[in-house]
Design brief:
By secondary structure, this protein is an alpha/beta fold. The chain is built from 7 helices and 9 strands, in the order βββαβαβαβαββααβα. The chain has one domain: Spore Coat Polysaccharide Biosynthesis Protein SpsA, Chain A, CATH 3.90.550. β4, α2 and β5 form a beta-alpha-beta unit.
Length: 201
């Protein structure tokens, strides 16, 4: 039986610390959102859900030009209420259809397909409720959640710390997977982007 894993890319935020929409900023000629979706397509995930919100049409245009039927774009009208709303919307698309779902913020844009594949492989071996990418002891993204806890994810609320509450609950049963340094690098500010571009020289 093929293991079905979905990747939910969270791309709804307002980029409050970035002038303009950071997901449209370019890294080596590709927008950040295009880059992370392409990485997902080069991995072993069966489907990719891109959750949009702020400037949804612009994000949609970037994703649609990739023209791949493994991608589904969903719009979150409640994106200003916090990330939990996007997580639940993404999981709702795949609940009951997959054995695991990975949650990944679009601004952790430099991960590679191996980072994703390694989590899937470890999940296949361990069946752990949560498998998380980490680098030198620091947890990053993506985070894989077994379908055993998808119903719990659908109950998260922003005022109860959202997904962090689930991660905390299963902390002892979580398997950490040593991954590339890019799993702990997110882009929040123009300075972050500048640093990333220097790193890639």
């Amino acid at each position: 039986m093929t293991l079905k894993v979905a990747l939910v890319i969270l791309a709804a935020g307002k980029s409050t610390r970035f002038p303009g929409n950071k997901l449209l900023a370019k890294i080596k000629g590709e927008s950040i959102i295009e880059k992370i979706v392409k990485t997902g397509l080069r991995s072993k995930v069966d489907m990719i859900i891109v959750v949009t919100g702020y400037e949804a049409d612009k994000i949609r245009k970037e994703v649609e030009k990739l023209g791949n039927d493994r991608i589904k774009i969903v719009y979150n009208p409640d994106y200003e209420e916090g990330q939990s709303t996007s997580v639940k919307l993404g999981v709702r698309e795949v609940i009951g259809k997959v054995e695991a779902v990975m949650i990944h913020p679009a601004d952790v844009a430099l991960i590679n397909p191996e980072d994703i594949n390694r989590l899937i492989e470890v999940f296949q071996i361990t069946s752990a409720p949560i498998v998380v990418a980490s680098h030198r002891g620091r947890r990053g993204h993506p985070i894989l959640f077994s379908n055993k806890i998808h119903e719990e994810i659908m109950m998260i609320r922003e005022e109860k710390r959202g997904l962090k509450e689930i991660v905390e609950k299963y902390r002892e049963d979580t398997v950490e997977v040593e991954s590339s340094r890019f799993t702990i690098i997110d882009i929040d500010t123009p300075e972050d982007l500048k640093k990333v571009l220097e790193n890639l020289q």
